[in-house]
Specification:
The structure is a single chain. The protein is of the alpha+beta class and 195 residues long. The protein has a single domain, classed as Jelly Rolls, CATH 2.60.120. Helix content is 49%, strand content 21%. The chain has nine helices and eight strands. The strands form two sheets. Strands 1-8-3-6 form a four-stranded antiparallel sheet. It has a four-stranded antiparallel sheet with strand order 2-7-4-5.
Length: 195
Amino acid sequence: MLDPDPRFLAKLRQQAEFTDAELAEFLECWETKLLRKKDHYLRAGDICRSTAYVNKGCLRRYEIGADAKENILNFALEDWWVGDLESFWNQKPGRFYIQALEDCELLLLSRVEFVKACDRFPKYKAFHDEKMHRSYFATLKRMTVATSGSAEEKYLLLAKEQPQLFQRVPLHYIASYLGIEPESLSRLRRKLAGK
């Protein structure tokens, strides 16, 4: 039985303007996927066949560089979406790994069901497009800080936008996301704590 996070239902009612009857019909298209801590939702080379809403848990998206080092691109907590958008749309192998950092519950909408839902519920398509636009702009902001900002600026942005990560994600993953060594992150945290 699908048991969506109340925030998800509230957004569909308020932002996508779903009636209760439309919402009930829409939710029949979804399925639940449970991941144990350290399980992967996607691996590089997989085809992303569903869009996934994080109902419970925390995940990381990463790629493995030419130097065989993991580069963490982002984290996803409850009320976030995860997947490989390019692979989802083109139905070709993706390049990202998405791994559970906690036990997770994902709500999946397959590509076929997604297309049907967008046709059946144009207001869902508008809602989804708006979320994609906001995600794109947030990604550009993070990329700007990542390429031109100092480690301190990157840390402060993460602490401002996702403070809960520091209680839920191992610090070596946060260091990887910030592009610094764990020891540098420890020094930075001590420095900022002293301010």
